Amino acid sequence: EMLHSKRHGYGTLTTTDGTVYTGEWQQNKKWGKGRLAHSSGNVYEGEFMDGKRHGYGRSTNTDGTIHEGNYVEGKLHGQGKITLQDGSILDGQFVAGQLTGTGTAIYANGAKYIGMWKDFQ
């Protein structure tokens, strides 16, 4: 939909590189629930605000890595989970995309770590 010559409401945009966004728009920006499928094969499904990932969402990368949780300004922030291609799971608090604070890692080999993280360490 269009309002005052700007995307507004629900619609689909396909860019010249093959990236496809289907979802809600406000003032010509991705805003609300949507699905962004990059031409690389990476897909994000979730909430947007002001054109960026913002709110709950799930990002699936072509290498099999999945990022799921709360996004702020395009990055995981707050409670989140990353599932790696080998099945390992990192679950905990994220700050600007980095696992920081209390978290749990369950590795594919069965090893487990529960404790404090700072920038994924």
Secondary structure elements and pairings:
Blueprint: E1 2-3, E2 6-7, E3 9-14, E4 20-26, E5 29-37, E6 43-49, E7 52-60, E8 66-72, E9 75-83, E10 89-95, E11 98-106, E12 112-117
Antiparallel strand pairs: 1-2, 3-4, 4-5, 5-6, 6-7, 7-8, 8-9, 9-10, 10-11, 11-12
Salient structural properties:
2 domains; two-stranded antiparallel ribbon; Phosphatidylinositol-4-phosphate 5-kinase; mainly beta; ten-stranded antiparallel sheet; 121 residues; elongated
Structure notes:
The protein has 121 residues and is an all-beta fold. The protein has two domains: 62 residues, no CATH class; 44 residues, no CATH class. It has no helices and twelve strands. The strands form two sheets. A ten-stranded antiparallel β-sheet has the order 3-4-5-6-7-8-9-10-11-12, with no helix packed on it. A hairpin with a 5-residue loop joins strand 11 and strand 12. The mean pLDDT is 94.
Whole-number tally of structural domains: 2
Portion in helices = under 10%
Q: Tell me the strand order in the biggest sheet.
A: 3-4-5-6-7-8-9-10-11-12
Overall strand count: 12
Largest sheet: 10 strands, antiparallel
Strand content: over 45%
* Rg from alpha-carbon coordinates: 16 Å
> H/E order of the elements?
EEEEEEEEEEEE
Low-confidence stretches: none
Please give the count of helices.
0
Provide mean pLDDT, rounded: 94
Shape: elongated
**Class by SSE composition:** mainly beta
Q: What's the end-to-end separation, in Å? A: 46 Å
Pfam families: MORN
Keywords: Repeat
InterPro entries: MORN
Protein name: Phosphatidylinositol-4-phosphate 5-kinase
